[in-house]
Amino acid sequence: MEYLRIPKERIGVLIGKGGEVKRRIEAELKVKITVDKEGMVTIENAGGEPLATWTARDIVRAIARGMSPEKAMKLTHEDYMLELIDLSEYLRTPKAIIRQKARIIGTKGKTRRYIEETTGTNVSVYGKSVAIIGPIEEVQVAREAVLMLVQGKPHSAVYRFLDRKARELKEKRLMSLWKKPFP
User: Fold this and answer.
1) 2-76 adopts what CATH topology?
2) pTM of the model
3) Measured in Å, how far apart are the chain's first and last C-alpha atoms?
4) Nearest to 15 by CA among 31, 38, 34
5) What is the tens place of the pLDDT at every residue in 75-128?
6) For the domain with range 80-179, which CATH number is right: 3.40.190.170, 3.40.718.10, 3.30.1370.10, 1.20.1290.10?
């Protein structure tokens, strides 16, 4: 059984219109989710896989950190993961957190979108945290790009890093296709 608290303003998103989001998570993972009006969430296994409770917990955490339910449900794929970066661990003042969140998002969302497009991940900046969902290697690249921005690196350096890593990941995927034996 897992217990966690989510922001009150995200309870409606977790439950969904007519309870559809909560029901979908419960049906796909065979878990039982209980949400109270204070944002306390209880997740218990209802006959699903042994790791279903943890997967459901990650989906709830992703929704709590600003992800849409559709993006959060990608976590049901076994090669996808959730990475949460707590900005308060790296920055001391609320002003610094606000400033760095703005750098991560970029003008009209350009930087966040660039990170998402080059890595194939989903990025959400919410509260004092950044949530990233995607395949494991791609999430690590996106995480590093976000941390570079938090450390004050210029956007141009981060974009160059992302371009280089995207090329490396693409080459790695192509090489793995070459090495597979023909049937």
Assistant:
1) Ribosomal Protein S8; Chain: A, domain 1 (3.30.1370)
2) 0.90
3) 44
4) 34
5) 999 899 999 999 999 999 999 999 999 999 999 999 999 999 999 999 999 999
6) 3.30.1370.10
